[in-house]
């Protein structure tokens, strides 16, 4: 994935705003015969706010799947 700063929130609300894009692929399986590898592309925004980072975006699967996602707070401690 990659992030690019596209703006900044007002100082009383937080800090920088980033636009991002990700390409993900993978699967979980027990044997090679069970493998069903999927790939998705995602677009989103990541904002540094007073309540912590906020991420929101959409993911599009190459098999036709679609998901929206929102994350609030720290992802890793």
Description of the molecule:
With 77 residues, the protein is mainly β. The chain contains no helices and five strands. A five-stranded antiparallel beta sheet has the order 1-2-3-4-5, with no helix packed on it. β1 and β2 form a beta hairpin. The protein starts with a strand and ends in a 5-residue tail after the last strand.
Features:
77 residues; single chain; 5-stranded antiparallel sheet; mainly beta
Report a brief summary of the structure.
With about 80 residues, this protein is mostly beta strands. Helix content is about 0%, strand content about 65%. It has a five-stranded antiparallel beta sheet, with no helix packed on it.
SSE map:
Elements: E1 2-8, E2 14-26, E3 38-49, E4 52-61, E5 66-72
Antiparallel strand pairs: 1-2, 2-3, 3-4, 4-5
Tell me the Rg in angstroms: 16 Å
The average pLDDT is: 89
Strand order of the largest sheet: 1-2-3-4-5
Q: Total number of helical segments?
A: 0
Largest sheet: 5 strands, antiparallel
Q: How many distinct beta strands?
A: 5
* Coarse morphology: elongated
Helix content: under 10%
């Amino acid at each position: 994935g990659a992030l690019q700063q596209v703006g900044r929130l007002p100082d009383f609300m937080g800090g920088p705003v980033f636009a991002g894009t990700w390409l993900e692929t993978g699967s979980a399986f027990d044997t090679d015969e069970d493998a069903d590898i999927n790939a998705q592309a995602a677009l989103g925004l990541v904002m540094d706010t007073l309540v912590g980072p906020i991420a929101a975006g959409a993911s599009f699967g190459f098999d036709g799947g679609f998901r929206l996602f929102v994350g609030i707070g720290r992802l890793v401690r």
